[in-house]
Specification:
Blueprint: E1 15-23, H1 27-38, E2 44-47, H2 56-59, H3 91-104, E3 111-112, E4 117-123, E5 128-133, E6 137-145, E7 167-170, E8 184-188, H4 192-201, E9 207-211, E10 218-219, H5 228-236, H6 238-260, H7 262-279, H8 283-288, E11 301-302, H9 306-310, E12 315-318, E13 322-326, E14 329-332, E15 337-339, E16 342-345, E17 360-361, H10 368-372, E18 390-392, H11 405-425, E19 428-433, H12 435-448, H13 453-456, H14 478-486, E20 493-499, E21 502-509
Parallel strand pairs: 1-2, 1-6, 2-3, 4-17, 6-18, 7-16, 8-9, 8-16, 9-12, 10-11
Antiparallel strand pairs: 4-5, 5-6, 13-14, 14-15, 19-20, 20-21
Helix pairs in contact: 1-11, 5-6, 6-7, 11-14
Length: 512
């Protein structure tokens, strides 16, 4: 796996030659490593810029952090976990699950920690990816980008924020050493993270000012403690766990039908309206918390404690964006203001403009970001023309509003494993998805999206890219996704062929 090119004692960085290089060791990277090893790939490495695996579930440690997908679905099918203590697992349990899975499948020892990819470029001459990091160099036959879309915090450009005299931090970089008891806190943003951490910190802070640019639909969360007897049953009878997983999948897919037929979700959102009415009696506050778009247009949020926390005497909801920060005063676009000593940013992540797209380059030196020009695009959400032998996990066009990231990921991993198996058996040196194939898939997606709630729900969400196009969402069922990605089509690719000792020797184009 390792082939040092520098002489003993030299300060020159080491170069590692591997078959597969995976960037990231979160749920995508770990899953990819396990699936590829199951497919017979032994020579692989994961590079991880942090000192610990876990990705999103390592970084997000804010109070109340938990999954909003049922635990039985939020796990790999090849690593069922009978030990979930809640129907919707919390961050510590999910992080522990990822560590346990990586260790149990022999993946932990393949991770190079403290290693950040700074530049990855395809080289036509040897048909390999050449990857620079802050430590060593790597070359790889295949490159898998598994950095994930919920990774890099999105920090708002608010005039005066940099000069705020108090403490400022993003929810995914929680300052556990900062004492919030009695503090005057401004929370900027009311998305998935804020819905979880606001109820957790509200009883401790002196004052809490929530600056809410857009009201969110929040549904009741059917969470509960999983009794020991039920966990014992799951351990002893794996079929019981599979049955639960299948039942939860069916329930989520039933809900998913509404995302393709918004009229159904307009009926479902009555549950959200009743939930809000039951928790918030003040009509003025209730109006401020009532969304003006169809449920599902933005990410679905679940909580039993968020609305009640906003009714407490020490909480003020500002139904406005933040316009500026003047000294210790946060000023809303509607003119309201609050003097605070702590600002917590619940402003989300770089979902469609992931940092990795600025670090992956084609053979001519153009980055993935240069190719996309603000509108991410990939064939089956996985491969991009101009970037041979590279795969993006949880990529564009594959997002759903109702299902688990693991469902999407495993559909992709089946596709990637099929591609690698065919690549090897056919003695390919490189595979590059044909541009017309990628364009046809993208057009098919865009043709189907307008009738979905993602596009027709009447909101502006992170599903929309810099050009106003929905580059995030999959407009069909996850069943269709799994069927579509299960089959690897070699005719979708232009390839170069190899013979022993020579790479490449000639090329041919797939014919449909």
């Amino acid at each position: 796996m390792r082939h040092p090119e520098s002489p003993a004692g030299s300060a020159t960085r080491e170069t590692h030659h591997v078959d597969v290089l995976i960037i990231g060791s979160g749920l995508s990277g770990i899953g990819a490593a396990v699936r590829l090893r199951q497919a017979g790939v032994r020579d692989l490495v994961l590079i991880e810029k942090a000192d610990e695996l876990g990705g999103t579930w390592r970084d997000n440690t804010y109070p109340g952090c938990a999954c909003d997908v049922p635990s039985a679905l939020y796990s790999y099918s090849f690593a069922p976990n009978p030990e979930w203590t809640r129907a919707f697992a919390g961050q510590p349990e999910i992080h522990a699950y990822l560590r346990t899975t990586a260790a149990g499948h022999g993946i932990a020892g393949l991770i190079h920690f403290g290693t950040e990819a700074t530049r990855a470029q395809w080289n036509h001459d040897d048909a390999r990816w050449h990857v620079e990091t802050n430590r060593d160099r790597y070359t790889a036959r295949f490159l898998i980008a598994a950095a994930g879309p919920w990774h890099e915090p999105l920090l708002p450009d608010i005039p005066g924020l940099d000069d705020f005299p108090g403490e400022v931090f993003h929810s995914s970089r929680w300052r556990h050493d900062h004492e919030l008891t009695g503090a005057r806190v401004a929370v900027v943003g009311s998305g998935a993270s804020a819905v979880q951490f606001v109820p957790a910190i509200q009883p401790r802070v002196g004052r809490l000012h929530l600056f809410q640019r857009t009201a969110q639909w929040v549904l009741p969360k059917p969470d509960h403690y999983v009794p020991r007897a039920e966990r014992w049953l799951m351990r002893r009878l794996p079929v019981a766990q599979r049955t639960l997983r299948n039942a939860e999948y069916a329930a989520m897919e039933t809900l998913g039908t509404g995302f393709r037929h918004p009229s159904i979700l307009r009926a479902v959102q009555k549950v959200g309206t009743l939930h809000l009415r039951a928790a918030v009696k003040d009509p003025q506050l209730r109006r401020a918390l009532t969304p003006d778009y169809t449920l599902g247009c933005k990410r679905l949020l679940l909580s039993n404690t968020y609305y009640p926390s906003l009714t407490r005497p020490n909480v003020t909801v500002h139904a406005t964006a933040v316009a500026a920060v003047h000294g210790s005063r946060v000023i809303g676009a509607d003119g309201s203001s609050a003097d605070v000593d702590t600002i917590i940013l619940g402003t989300g992540f770089h979902i469609l403009d992931m940092p990795v797209v600025h670090r992956v380059f084609d053979a001519d030196g153009a980055s993935l970001a240069d190719h996309w020009k603000g509108s991410p695009d990939a064939y089956l959400g996985t491969t991009v023309s101009g970037f041979p032998n590279a795969f993006i996990l949880l990529g564009p066009h594959l997002g759903t509003g109702h299902s688990s990231a693991y469902m999407v990921l495993e559909a992709q991993l089946d596709h990637v494993a099929g591609a690698v198996r065919h690549f090897r058996s056919a003695r390919w040196a490189s595979m590059n998805v044909r541009p017309e194939v990628q364009a046809a898939f993208s057009a098919e997606v865009q043709q189907a999206l307008p009738s979905t709630v993602y596009n027709a729900g009447g909101c502006s969400s992170y599903y929309l890219d810099d050009n106003g196009r929905n580059s995030f969402s999959w407009p069909w069922s996850t069943g269709r996704m799994r069927r579509r990605l299960a089959r690897f089509d070699p005719e979708a690719y232009d390839v170069t062929l190899s013979t022993a000792g020579k790479l490449p020797v000639h090329s041919r184009s797939g014919v449909r």
